[in-house]
Write the structure tokens for this entry.
Amino acid sequence: MSRESLHNGATTGNTYTDLGATTEEALEISAKSRRLARETIGNSGYEDRIRQRCAIAVGDFAMADLIRFREEPVLSGLRALASGALVITDIRMVQVGILKKGHRSDIICALDFDEGAGEHGITRTSQGFINLGERISGAIVVIGNAPSSLITVCRGVHKGYRPALVIGTPVGFVNAKESKEQLRETGVPSISTEGTRGGTPVAVAAMNEIITIHAELQDNRQYPQGVRPLEQTAVSHEE
């Protein structure tokens, strides 16, 4: 496991907040899964928490060893959520899966901005990110399915766009591995997976864990250095 860039004290102890679990049974299942993940993966900081959640999401602890962190992505994600930054997803499944509570960010999908995809002969997600243009800068980009859209985002970075965080975990045998390698070379804060494995559940899990950490920090008023609290913004508890 890599050296942690953030330390979160008691929030990674034996208690755990699951914003998505709303019943006693759901909380019990979540807590048991998390205990098993802690024991197997480790629990030394925020990055381990993301590894835990991603492994739980796919039912395979081996996933933890495939997660790659670049340029302090958790801190960057927390800063972005604290400022209410836009969250942009590649597909609707990712958009739907991301928690709508614990933060005040809008979550949009690149598919809603795909005008011209047919004319240009490229994927709808790629066209969506092209059309979003400068809105990518300062946003959290979450890509769980489409390697083509991740490559498009990387090209945007080379043009000067600067996302706050890119979570890129597309899965498959065509361009998935290569797109994530490109992401890790951009210098942008990122969370990705090594090789061909990944997928929507992994991207959603990583994003939701950062949201959970953000919500805990707001509730406990324990912000890492460089993350400014939202003094006048309450945590939403609505779906």
User: Anything to note?
Assistant: The chain is about 45% helix and 10% strand. The first strand starts at residue 67 and ends at 70. Residues 65-220 form a domain with the Rossmann fold fold (CATH 3.40.50.10230).
